[in-house]
Design goal:
The structure holds 2 protein chains of 2 kinds. By secondary structure, chain A is mainly α. Chain A has 5 helices and 3 strands. Chain A has 2 domains: about 80 residues, Arc Repressor Mutant, subunit A (Orthogonal Bundle), CATH 1.10.10; about 40 residues. In chain A, helix 1 packs across helix 3 and helix 2 crosses helix 3. Chain A starts with a strand and ends with a helix. Chain B is α+β, with helices and mostly antiparallel strands.
Chain lengths: ~130, ~450
């Protein structure tokens, strides 16, 4: 799976790493059991501080999609948190995102079309 | 000595030429480190520019060979080391200027024809590639066997300890090359292709490292044997094998890796020219200190925008300047001998010594001295000074002009000094002065 990190954009690098890995898992590009590179190696290749990658991995572990073992490193795991545990935080994030989109002038029809395309892309792995 | 040095220079010039030619071998996305798509690489003006570059490099090579032959003339005898270094640095500078000049011409061509690719400040890595760093490599056992073999000369006690330790130290370099992962420099959108490329590159890298290890071991053993036999010819052969071998391995590795990367595609072509200043990588947005060279598989380079990078580059420049100053001073200044009441003071660059009168055991004047090797000092065409190890005498402090066949040997309780002056007569006079002072 390819990570594409914008080094001078507004989004923090740790967030880009975390978000792209989550999308990668959802799309099926990363599967349960797949290893993630060691923190230092990924940091070296991206040219960032190891703490940045560490933070991203920490967030992924808290989200419930990776296990981190001291000897074997980080691996993708089956989602280990229930929807109830995540729901409150996710809905709040979604509310903020939708509000931002509305304030930027995106109408609901365009938003629904975009959402349908995204859902079909991310969920298509489940149907095959 | 002069033929040996000239031979080494020729080998270095040949390596510089081959390296420059490697830069213009078309790979999929780069010519001379400048991004070009495969179709743009075939354009007649681009091909013509590369032919001109090749001709210029050849002219520099032939010119350097001719200059090195001229330097063998007697008129350069007194200043041989300085002019040799200057001509050597001139060759490197000319090659560097040519590469930069033709890089600018290629950039100008791209600008004139509006051939620009992405420059989006994005860094791309493939997670699958980073987790497959050990796959595909040949066994490291061969390198560890070579490392053990490099320890054998430690048992030979008539060679200086420093020389005996060089082998195991230089064997650490191929081990570093073996374990260092070199990811594909250009990625495909398909991660499976990237992982497959990475595994094949790992194999090539591990084979290169093993061959480099073998080469270094052979070079080191020849060096040790040559030092033991006092044979400059063996040293020359060893150096030649090392340089030729490393060049061949580099050419082989570059070809193999470029062939592997031929499947990488052109989705992520990136213009990188704005990240370079005066040929050096300068990217303040890149936090790495060492980055891959823009000509893939040719090694790493320093990010001059990194604070440590600036310090490293300044250190390298200062080191070169210091070597030039030391060389110039050593070449142009004569030894000075000052006899005062209690001691003789010998003034030589970085190797000043004094000999106390009460410590002197014996003094003699001879017409020849045995062969030896330098352990720490300056060994030039005209002058040799510093710590040497000579047959019969063992470790000595040497301060001699090689073209003066007259030597003064002073033995103290702890040390032997062998020195002479600018001519046979001046040496005779110095000897008479010292013997009179001793009475």
């Amino acid at each position: 799976m390819l990570l594409e990190i914008d080094m001078i954009g507004e989004v923090a690098i740790y967030k880009q790493i975390k978000d792209q890995i989550i999308v990668g898992i959802a799309k099926g590009q990363l599967k349960v059991g797949d290893p993630l590179p060691p923190v230092r190696k990924l940091a070296e290749q991206l040219g960032v501080n190891a703490m940045t990658v560490n933070k991203a991995y920490g967030l992924l572990r808290d989200f419930g999609v990776i296990d981190i073992d001291r000897r074997h490193g980080a691996k993708i795991c089956a989602m280990n948190k229930t929807l109830d545990e995540l729901q409150h935080v996710d809905l709040l994030d979604l509310q903020v995102l939708l509000s931002e989109l509305k304030l930027r002038g995106i109408d609901s029809d365009t938003l629904m079309d975009t959402l349908e395309t995204m859902v079909s892309t991310i969920y298509k792995g489940d149907e095959s | 000595m002069i033929y040996f040095t000239t031979g080494i220079m020729w080998m270095v010039y040949a390596v510089m030429m081959v390296t420059s030619f490697l830069y213009i071998r078309p790979n999929n996305q780069q010519l001379l480190g400048i991004t070009f798509s495969q179709s743009d690489q075939q354009k007649p003006e681009v091909v013509a520019l590369l032919k001109q570059f090749k001709r210029s490099v050849l002219i520099v090579f032939v010119g350097s060979i001719l200059v090195s032959v001229l330097l063998m003339d007697d008129i350069f005898y007194d200043v041989y080391e300085v002019v040799m270094i200057v001509s050597f640095m001139l060759n490197i500078s000319l090659n560097w200027i040519l590469i930069n000049s033709y890089q600018n011409k290629l950039e100008a061509y791209k600008k004139a024809h509006d051939l620009y690719y992405h420059n989006d400040h994005k860094v791309r890595v493939d997670l699958g590639v980073l987790t497959s760093s050990k796959e595909g490599k040949i066994s490291s056992i061969y390198l560890y066997v070579m490392l053990i073999l490099s320890l054998v000369p430690l048992l030979i006690h008539d060679i200086p300890l420093i020389a005996r330790c060089i082998g195991p130290i230089i064997m650490l370099f191929p081990l570093y090359v073996y374990y260092k992962q070199v990811p594909p420099s250009h990625l495909n959108t398909d991660s499976k292709i990237n992982v497959e490329m990475s595994i094949r590159i790992n194999k090539i890298q591990s084979i290169s490292a093993t061959l480099i290890g073998l080469l270094m071991l052979v070079f080191y053993l020849i060096l040790v044997f040559g030092a033991q036999k006092n044979s400059p010819l063996l040293l020359f052969i060893g150096s030649g094998i090392l340089m030729l071998g490393i060049t061949l391995i580099a050419v082989w590795q570059t070809r193999q890796i470029r062939e592997v990367e031929s499947v990488s595609g052109e989705d992520y072509l990136q213009d990188t020219s704005k990240m370079y200043r005066w040929g050096a990588y300068y990217n303040p947005n890149d936090k790495r200190l060492f980055v891959p060279k823009r000509v893939s598989s040719m090694g790493m380079t320093i990010n001059a925008a990194h604070p440590l990078g600036k310090a490293l580059m300044a250190s390298i420049i200062l080191l070169i300047l210091w070597i030039l100053i030391f060389l110039g001073y050593s070449t142009f200044s004569d030894y000075k001998y000052q006899i005062d009441a209690q001691q003789i003071v010998i003034d030589a660059p970085m190797y000043d010594r004094s000999i106390n009168k009460e410590d002197i055991v014996s003094i003699e004047e001879v017409n020849s001295i045995p062969q030896g090797i330098r352990s720490n000092g300056f060994g030039g065409l005209k002058k040799n000074f510093g710590h040497f190890s000579l047959d019969t005498y063992g470790n000595v402090m040497l301060y001699i002009y090689s073209d003066v066949d007259n030597y003064i040997i002073v033995k103290t309780k702890d040390q032997t000094f062998i020195f002479n002056d600018t001519s046979v007569d001046a040496t005779d006079t110095l000897y008479d002065d010292i013997t009179a002072w001793l009475k």
